[in-house]
Amino acid sequence: MSAQAEPKQPPSSPVETGTAMTDLTKPVVAADGAGAPSAQPHGANRVEPKVTTTDVKVFYGSSEALHGIQTEIPANQVTALIGPSGCGKSTFLRCLNRMNDTIEGARVTGKILMDGEDIYDKSLDVVLLRARVGMVFQKPNPFPKSIFENIAYGPRIHGLAKSKGELADIVERSLKRAGLWDEVKDRLKEPGTGLSGGQQQRLCIARAIAVSPEVILMDEPCSALDPIATARIEELIDELRRNYTIVIVTHSMQQAARVSQKTCFFHLGDLVEEGDTDQIFTNPRDKRTQDYITGRFG
C-alpha cells in the first residue's frame, strides 16, 4: 500500500447524480472487450455466506426500529450498508456482535447465524463473540495507553500469547496488517492518543484484528477523517477482505461504490434492496433505491 496514493476527490455535493454514481462503478472496457460486464445473471457467482439473518427485528422499548431483516453477508467480501440517517443500518450492524445488548430497553428477535451458529443462543459467550466479530467506530477511540498496549490488551486478556515474545509478534503483525507499523515502530511506548486521526483509526483497526476476528464491523470509519486518510483506510479495507469478512456502514455512496462488493439499502427500518454493488448503483430495482442514490431524498 503506497503512502503516496492520490486520494479520490470528494464530490462537490453530498450526493452525486445517478449518472455520476454509475461512472464510479463502470468497469474499464478494453478494445478487445476485456473487462466488460459478465452476461451471467445476478447471483450466478454467489459466495458462501459468513452471516445469515432471518426475520431480524429490533425494538427499543415498544418502538420497532428494524422490520424483519433477512439477508446474507458473504464471506471475505465487503458489504456496505447505505441509507438515510435513522434508517436502521447502524442498528442492524450492532446486531451482528450483540452491541444492542448494552442498550437499555433494546430487544432483538429473529435469528442471526454465523457459520451456522446462532449468535443469540443463551449458551454463547458474548465476550468471545465480540472477539470473533470486531468493531471499528465512527470516531477513533484508542485506549489511553501506549500504542503497544492498545494492541496488546486484547490478545493478553484472551490468552492468545504464551510469552512476551509472542505478544510482541502479534502487535507487530497487527500493526503491519493495518498499514501502520512503519509509522509507529520506533514510538510504540508513546500514547496512542498522540497519533493523527487517520493513524488513530488504523490503530483501532489493528486493535480489532489483534484478537484474530473473523468479521470486522465498521460504523462510518472515515466520517471524521480527511480525504487522504480516508483513501488510506479504503485501501486497507480492500486488503483486509482477503482475510476477513467486512461490513461497513457509510453515508458516502461514492465510498460504498469504491470499497464494497455487495450493497444493502435500508429505509425506515426496512431492507429495501440488496445486491451486487454495481447492480445497485447502475440498475436498482426499487424506485426508493433509485431516488436515494440520485439524491431525490436522504
UniProtKB/TrEMBL annotation:
Q: Which SMART domains match?
A: AAA
- Every copy of the ABC transporter domain together lies at 51-293
MF term (GO), any: ATP binding
The record's keywords, sorted A to Z, are:
ATP-binding, Nucleotide-binding, Phosphate transport, Transport
Q: SUPFAM superfamilies in the record, alphabetically? A: P-loop containing nucleoside triphosphate hydrolases
Biological process GO annotation list?
A: phosphate ion transmembrane transport
Q: How is this protein named in the record? A: Phosphate import ATP-binding protein PstB
Q: Which family does it belong to?
A: Belongs to the ABC transporter superfamily.
Instruction: Enumerate the PANTHER family for this protein.
Output: ABC TRANSPORTER I FAMILY MEMBER 17
Gene name linked to the record: pstB
The source's domain of life comes to Bacteria
- State the organism of origin: Salinarimonas ramus
What does the entry list under GO cellular component?
A: membrane
The record's region (Disordered) falls at 1-50
- Listed Gene3D superfamilies: P-loop containing nucleotide triphosphate hydrolases (3.40.50.300)
InterPro entries in alphabetical order: AAA+_ATPase, ABC_transporter-like_ATP-bd, ABC_transporter-like_CS, P-loop_NTPase, PstB-like
Does the entry feature the keyword Hydrolase, yes or no? no
Task: Report the CDD domains cross-referenced here.
Answer: ABC_PstB_phosphate_transporter (cd03260)
Keyword ATP-binding part of the UniProt annotation: yes
One family from Pfam that matches here is ABC_tran
